[in-house]
Amino acid sequence: MKKIIVTGGSGFIGSNLVKFLLKKNYFVINIDKLSYSANPYNLKEIKKNKNYRFFKLDINESKKLLKILNKFQPSGIFNLAAETHVDRSIDDPKNFIKSNIIGVYSLLEVIKKYLKSKNRKVKLIHISTDEVYGDIVSGKRSDEKFSYNPSSPYAASKASADHLIKSYIRTYKIPAIISNCCNNYGPNQFPEKLIPKLIYNIIKNKPLPIYAKGKNSREWIHVYDHCEALLKIFLKGKIGENYNVGTGQNVRNIDIAKKLIIIQKSLLQNNNNKAKIQFVKDRPGHDLRYALNSKKIQVKLGWKSKIKLQKGLAGTFNWYLNNFIFFKSISKKLYNKRLGLK
């Protein structure tokens, strides 16, 4: 049984990847410092799985991290340990620098030391974002050769990590691959992100906050499709390469809100729901459009997204309805001060 480390495995994408890998018969080691967006509820059903181990650890704790690598000798590491919310990076970039840049440096140094031992092999899959490419004009899509042009502190921190990894690949021969994915949605997502926050507000009959006029356009991929792409990259991807992971379909934020309003009519018993879109002041440096060219992973690795947006949104809405305790499992402090979820 191959062993895999997932850093940030208690977060949104990480927890879904952990469960996905377990179903694929991997032994999974989850390393997570359990920051605000990590939630033990995400992995409650696998706590006692014999093929799962959890370590509460920051990836900046290099000595402890190296001990874990030496003990389990994994064949792969999926790095999802990161601060991810753009708004939060604008409010306070410091934690993004610490986790997304210095944390990646720490992880690379640990891998470098680990590989010095005889017969040690491990492949790093680093999960990045489409935001590193910056604002993409209408009619164009960014491929893997597209120049980086990040707009927010979050995007800049992820771009910095990508460049750092590429330098370690070339200079130290670290076996690493970078994936750049579009916006994810699905179960377990922290409700400061657009889709779960809109779902929560619809259920609670609250206004649906949308920046500016809602014309900002994004690709959306279901997290299950993303997990399949990541495993494909691990198994078949070429060391030193980047792979864009997207659906090729762009949707404006206002249209996401409208789709969720329509979905609630078929799912909620209370048909008197009056949740309405409320336009709010735009955030600084808000990119209008992200759009990926994902032909490389489709042609070279044979991956393509399967879950259609409408079906995926309906399933996600239904998951939150059936797991409303997920919202309640988040601290009251975050509910009241950060998210306004009361």
Summarize this structure as a short list of keywords or feature phrases.
alpha/beta, 342 residues, 12 helices, Rossmann fold
Model description:
- It is a single chain.
- A seven-stranded parallel β-sheet has the order 3-2-1-4-5-6-10, with helices on both faces.
- It has a domain of 235 residues: Rossmann fold (3-Layer(aba) Sandwich).
- It is an alpha/beta fold and 342 residues long.
- Helix 2 packs across helix 4, helix 6 runs parallel beside helix 8 and helix 6 packs across helix 10.
- It is built from twelve helices and twelve strands.
- Helices cover 42% and strands 17% of the residues.
Summarize this entry quickly:
The protein is built from twelve helices and twelve strands. With 342 residues, it is of the alpha/beta class.
Q: Any idea of the CATH topology of the domain at 3-189 and 221-249 and 288-306?
A: Rossmann fold
Weakly predicted, low-confidence segments: none
Q: How is the biggest beta sheet arranged?
A: 7 strands, parallel
- Helix-strand category: alpha/beta
CATH class of the domain at 3-189 and 221-249 and 288-306: Alpha Beta
**Overall 3D geometry?**
globular
Helical coverage, percent range:
40-55%
Element string (H = helix, E = strand):
EHEEHEHHEHEEHEEHEEHEHHHH
Distance between the termini: 45 Å
CATH superfamily of the domain at 3-189 and 221-249 and 288-306: NAD(P)-binding Rossmann-like Domain
Give the number of helices: 12
What is the CATH architecture descriptor of the domain at 3-189 and 221-249 and 288-306? 3-Layer(aba) Sandwich
Which strand-content bin applies to the residues? 15-25%
Radius of gyration: 20 Å
Strand arrangement within the widest β-sheet reads: 3-2-1-4-5-6-10
Mean pLDDT: 93
